[in-house]
Structures are given as structure tokens and as C-alpha cells.
Amino acid sequence: MAGLSYRHRADAALRSGVPRSVLDVAVAAYEASAGDLLTVWGGMVQYLAGQPAGTREALLGALPGRYRQAPPGSGLRLGLLHLAAVLGRDSATDVLAAERREAVLALDNRWAVKDHALLHLARTELATGRTLPAPVVATVRRSARLTRDPGWAALAARLTQPLLNVGERWADAALADLAGRGAAWHALVVHAGTARAGTPTETWDRTARELLDQAGEGEVRRTVLSWLPLVGQARPRPPARTETAAWGAVDQQLDPFNADFLRGLVMLLPLTGPDAETVSELGRLVDTCTYTAPQGGGPRSARVANAAVVALGCLGSSAATAELRGLAGRTSYGNTRRVIDRRLLLRAP
Known about the structure:
Layout: H1 6-16, H2 19-33, H3 40-49, H4 53-69, H5 75-87, H6 97-105, H7 116-127, H8 134-147, H9 150-157, H10 169-178, H11 183-192, H12 202-215, H13 217-227, H14 256-268, H15 276-289, H16 302-315, H17 318-330, H18 334-347
Helix pairs in contact: 1-2, 2-3, 2-4, 4-5, 5-7, 6-7, 8-9, 11-12, 11-14, 14-16, 15-16, 15-17, 16-17, 16-18, 17-18
């Protein structure tokens, strides 16, 4: 048997009619490939998923026992949960549902994940009619942003609530404020999240002005300015360490999903008119977002910092120009410094 492929070994086990033997082969395939769905483990999952309904039901019946034998917290348990979800796609019995729910809930403090087994478990939770808690939604959205994986992106696109990711003080404050505001406020924040260009386009500005009129220009300015000092403050619950070093010091970074909305909110401010508090808060935001942790990994959010610089330039006041000059003297991050220099050049007589 040792020289046979996992597919042939699974065939022999299926012919024996002993579901436990089939699962033993599946576990061996998992361990041989460290659970990589792009190798023999993924092929095994697909092969068993293609078996007749009666065979899949028998395998599902044996899965809880095999799951309990796997080491707690192991990747193998996660793999078996994935297998249960695939085998049970049209079963009346939701095998290992509580264990699957527990695995999905454990995503709530992860910065981001790549594992497609977890992706499938989260999808299965939604398919059963359950919702994902807000902290899990936040992890799914960050995973979509940071991995650029189509599977995670498709799942994130289905999750429209809450509007912002929970876990950052400014976003938590914004969500609390928005809960008591009307539809115009909600539409305004949604519109802020669509700001993708380095500078606001005329079309984006036109829609923003219409929404500002509905929400109240002065109230929007006061409210957004109350959120900005909270940007970069320590999270109530720091995210768990990530297994991917490329993501850097995640406890110091801005949530990349929220950062898109924050950029747009910053770009709204010049439309509410020049204001001394606006100028000082935008300058502070540049300093906050260009901060680089000692562990490395780049600034908190260069994109938000650059948006704040652009907003200062759009204000056009002498105070805003003075703030830009001050930033030019103390900003060392090269990309943002170049944006500052360009804005100063545009303000030059």
C-alpha cells in the first residue's frame, strides 16, 4: 500500500466499505502535504466530494470521531472541518457545526489569513443562514485587501455590515455616531469609501457636495474632526501576531479597509471650508500616518497621509500653506514628502 497513490489507496478503502479507513487515507494525504489545498490534500477533498450521496453520508458519520482524535488546535482539525463542510453540502445533518462555528469565530482577532480552508468554513457558515460577527467580518475584509485573493475578495464583497471594520478607536466612534444619524450620513460615508484617485475628481466632488448639503456641512466637519484625533491610538484589543512577516507590525498599522473610508472623509473636509481646527488636525494626521514602528514594515498608512496633504493643499488658506511648510520640515517618509513638495509648488506665487 505504501507505494500506491493516495487516490488508489482511497479507492481501495472505499471498496472495503469502512469509512474510517477512507478517512485514514485522507488524513495521510493532509499530513503529506501540510494541508495545502493545491496538492494531494486538495485532490483528496475533491475526490471524496464527488462520491455518491450515500458514501458521503457514511464518511460524515465517521468524521466526528476522527476529528476528536486529531490534536486540539491543529491544522488537521481545520482540514477535517473543511472536509465535513464539503461532504455535507446537501446533507440534512450539519456535522461538526459547533466546531466549525468555533473555528470561524477564532478569526475575530486575526489581522488577515490566507488559508482557503478557513475561507470555505466562513462561506459555509453564511450558507447555513448564520451571520459572521463584526470582528470576523473585519478579518475577512483585511484578508481580501492584503492577500488580493479572489476567493477572499468575493466573500468580503458579500459582507456589507458593519459599514466600517470594528477594532480601531476612530472607526468604533464613527460607527457609534452613525447609528444615530440618517440615510444621508450613511450615504456620505459610503461615498467617502469610493475615493480611489490621489486627488478628488470633479464627479466625486459633485456627489460629495450634494451629500454634504443633505447631512449638514458644519455638522459633518465637526463630527469628522472629532474622529481624527482617535486615528492611530492603541486598539482596545491588539490584533494577534501574524504568520506573514510581509504584513509588518500590524498592531501599528491602520486597518486597510477602514483606510479607504478615512481617505475619503479627509478629502471631504476641504469642501466644508477653511477652518483652523481642520488645518491642525490634518497636519497631525500626516504625522500620525507617516509614523513607522521600530519593527519596520513602513508607515501606518501612506495613502491616508497623502490624502491629508492633498486636503491641506485644497484648503488654499495661508494657514494650510504654513502647515504644509511645517510638514516639509519634519516629514521623512519619501513618498509623502514628495506629495508635500508638489502641493507647496502649486501654492507658490
